[in-house]
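Researcher: Following up on the earlier apo prediction. This time include the ligand. It's nicotinamide-adenine-dinucleotide, with the SMILES given after the sequence.
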Amino acid sequence: MKIAVIGTGYVGLVTGTCLAECGNEVVGIDKDQGKIDTLHAGRLPIYEPGLLELVQRNRREGRLRFTTQLAEGIAEAQTIFICVGTPPGPDGEADLSHIWSAGEEVASLLANYKLIVVKSTVPVGTNAALEKRMRARSSIAFDMASNPEFLKEGAAVDDFMKPDRVVIGVRSPKAEQLLRDLYSPFLRTDHPLLVMTPESAEMTKYVANAMLATKISFINEMANLCEVMHADINDVRRGIGHDSRIGFQFLFPGPGYGGSCFPKDVNALIAMARKHGQPAHLIEAVEQVNQRQKRMLVRKIRQHFGDQLAGKCLAIWGLAFKPRTDDIREAPSLVLIDEMLKDGVRLQVHDPEATANVKAIYGEQIKYCERPYDALKGADALAIVTEWQEFRNPDFVVMHHLMKQPIIFDGRNIYEPKAMKALGYTYYGIGRVLDG
Ligand SMILES: NC(=O)c1ccc[n+]([C@@H]2O[C@H](COP(=O)([O-])OP(=O)(O)OC[C@H]3O[C@@H](n4cnc5c(N)ncnc54)[C@H](O)[C@@H]3O)[C@@H](O)[C@H]2O)c1
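Model: Understood. Below is the ligand-bound prediction.
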């Protein structure tokens, strides 16, 4: 099948590349000249494990190319995926300007039948509204489909290649068949392709993210309660996880959820609920708990150092909103950095992939370190914000020597409080018993 993908960000680039890998001919289109230049130079504008090799192979074999020119990019395509960003607007509502402009531009260029698939996360009713806008600009026949994406950054290629399920929202049998054909190579292990209306498909994506965000805020709130009640969240987590109705997944306390999806989608769902006069108390609370949780490390650090904080040096390990990505959108690390800079704290930071993105915001206000241990030199404390694998088993003796004070604020509970105490550290986890 000939396919065009509009937007070569995390979703568009993975979608286009994986579709090419299955034998389709794919053109990736982006209006960002810099991104397309980077792709033409054989590099990736983002970090995503396993993606570079796939992009390189499919380009080499002539199934994948990139352009900034929409007209030329979609000319031959039978199916067009819209994968542009839907960032949060000022009042939490999704900003759909990229969706409207991409769809309207496509409509003005249509010369023959095409299937237009919206993969971006969009409020319920957007597919229908986009179709209306496009029909006002074109008399050529086309079909619309909603096909929300559930991939996780850091495991995006695997998630796309072996999805738990594919959701499509369609109103035409032709659109359904085209998408069934396109996705059949990815669903060989009997994972389902679920067909529904575009509205239900759009809603499915928000409900999935709201559920996951709810689990995170729930366990964070329980961890905070554990702290004041001298219970250990790690024991409690294991105690509940073995109940098959509850399970273990997504129940790890931390410094709040970030990234380009949960915060934005939770807020968009709240905005949708408000617009329709339907209260969404639980989801509003999920967001409030998360806002508070993102300041949790700040609170612990301020409490520990009191009025001695100004002039101290804090090492930070982990800047990306989660491991195996360079994405720092809404990352908890940014809240910590902002607050510590306000307090006059010197920062020495390390992240395996996200440093360049953080440097683009803070410039020379922060010291960026190539290696984790470099960030510890002369530090009064270490804060762990992202649980990259390489932080899990460091040499604590070397660390002790490097740091001015052996204090760790572990925002991901990757170390054991008792072991840390035995090694001579002052250790703060989340919801852990410190001297039990
Ligand atoms: N990132 C994720 O993990 C993820 C997962 C599932 C769903 N989503 C959703 O997918 C959508 C895209 O997310 P993303 O993270 O890939 O965004 P992104 O910001 O990384 O990429 C979007 C790309 O679209 C391009 N673009 C915007 N308007 C364009 C136009 N008119 N023509 C050509 N290119 C245009 C931008 O230049 C950018 O490169 C969002 O709605 C998001 O909520 C994201």
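Model: The chain has a mean pLDDT of 97.
Researcher: Noted. I'll compare it with the apo version next.
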